[in-house]
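Example record

Each entry pairs one chain with its bound ligand, 2-acetamido-2-deoxy-beta-D-glucopyranose.
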Amino acid sequence: NSIFSPPSLNPTMRWIALFGLVATASSLPRSVRNANYAALAADVKDDDLELVFATALWRHGDRAADHAVPGREQFPEDAWTFGGGGYGELSPEGMAAHFNLGKRLRARYMDKYSLLSPTYNAKEIYIRSTDYNRTLISAYANVAGMYAGTGVTGQNFPAAELIPDGEWPVGYIPIPVHTVPYSTDFVGHPDSTCARQDELYALVQSSAEYQNYINDPQIAQILVYLSNMTGTDVTIENIGVMQDPIYCEQRHITELNETGATIEQFYPWFFTNDIPEWADWIDEKADDFADGIANPAGVNGIDVSVEIPKIRAGDSLKLLSSNVKGVLACRDNSTISSCRKFYENLKYYAISAHDSTLLAFLSLLGVKQYIIPAGGVNYTATMLFEVYEHKETAERSFKVLYHASEKDDIKPITSFVRGCSPLENVCSLSVLDDLVAKYAPETDMATLCNTPVFGGVDPVTGTVTSPTNSPGTTESTMPPTTSAVSALSLLSGAFVIAISTLRC
Ligand SMILES: *[C@@H]1O[C@H](CO)[C@@H](O)[C@H](O)[C@H]1NC(C)=O
Ligand SMILES: *[C@@H]1O[C@H](CO)[C@@H](O)[C@H](O)[C@H]1NC(C)=O
Ligand SMILES: *[C@@H]1O[C@H](CO)[C@@H](O)[C@H](O)[C@H]1NC(C)=O
Ligand SMILES: *[C@@H]1O[C@H](CO)[C@@H](O)[C@H](O)[C@H]1NC(C)=O
Ligand SMILES: *[C@@H]1O[C@H](CO)[C@@H](O)[C@H](O)[C@H]1NC(C)=O
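Structure tokens for the complex follow.
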């Protein structure tokens, strides 16, 4: 059923054929799942409920590329000058966006809900960041926005007698941001080293869903095309390593090249025929495999849709739940021993992290497929988890909200969370306990990661498994392999039109 006879096609004609195929497929509506987020209503305050605790999990702001586009050296590390200079640093736009997000959070938590005092109180807030410059600086910028203009001289910063007039940045309130080392940070880094996760991902790769996906003729053709153009082996796991720096360069092209050259001039092979959209789409699908949600029925008797989220987001869930319990224990009775000092006045706990962190957490909650707009997790995208107490009945509940981008409102997504009712605006705290029972690691992460899924024996082949790397996410710093592929070998094979099956 091939519509082409490859031997008679010269290379140009093959590309035309490929692009025809890509263009036809791309014109189909691929984003049915994204309709929901855009249609969601903004949050409405319920005056019967008192907000008692809030957690924020956000992505850092706009940044420099993490590395060059594989096989292309146009924009090396020293081309990136902002945010301290070099790869991966937060840009001034990223700082501004987090500052504005901080102002938005102030509007919610100080003005609208009176959760926080109008001036900085060290006992009320705790800010944690991954140990990356861009997430740390995002957090500084965010709290700077949150408390901008609220500072009191002699309280929040030194008076003029101590610092010569005008030298202290006007109104600047230093606010601590805590961090932990990368290797132990399973709250911020779903991709921290974990043998068990590698084993589970190898299992995903052996699944019919994954094999059908990578062997889909259209996907395979695009990977072959991009491999040929970059001279590297582009796979669904590492396509982000190529696509992500192009995205960052695109956003900063006028600074990177002051001649007015456009990004399309640098990568004409990429900016053609919906290749950018396809690359995004393939990368997002790769995220779903990585997060365990593309194999809802499990693989070889292992429920990867539980086991993988447990590793990638279980530790964050555990932290979230213990914070909620800690705060509520003190609220119930601040003199009992289960009320720890740290929680006595805690109102707000924020985590400054990465797109992979948000994707993993939203996947665990079961909301990812409904609320992530096309293009993945935007810079400064934020998930909020809020605990309420009914003013009369004292009944406790929670809300989950998502802020997809600077352009979007903070929208409630509670009804999409596993176990929550689609008919209620809030969800019972018992659902949080259910999630913890199912997804929180029973042990510490080191123990979990050293627990083999099958005692180290591959159930398919019976051989001892040699774990492969789990896939890079959009922010992976994993270098792609440089082995050249015989790129056109697939193109000379049969083209099979398979556009009638939408994959999501
Ligand atoms: C962050 O800062 C450190 C020095 O504090 C530097 O070595 C590193 O290259 C910077 N960039 C990233 C992405 O961590
Ligand atoms: C890409 O394809 C062209 C045309 O067939 C071929 O000449 C070239 O060697 C390929 N490049 C790589 C890196 O595979
Ligand atoms: C900027 O773009 C022009 C035109 O494409 C090119 O000649 C020049 O080398 C580029 N400069 C840098 C610094 O990339
Ligand atoms: C709080 O706990 C203390 C110590 O157990 C107890 O004496 C006190 O009555 C409790 N207060 C309330 C309001 O329950
Ligand atoms: C970011 O958010 C906007 C608005 O919700 C959305 O249209 C866009 O696709 C998102 N993704 C990216 C990568 O910009």
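The chain is about 35% helix and 10% strand.
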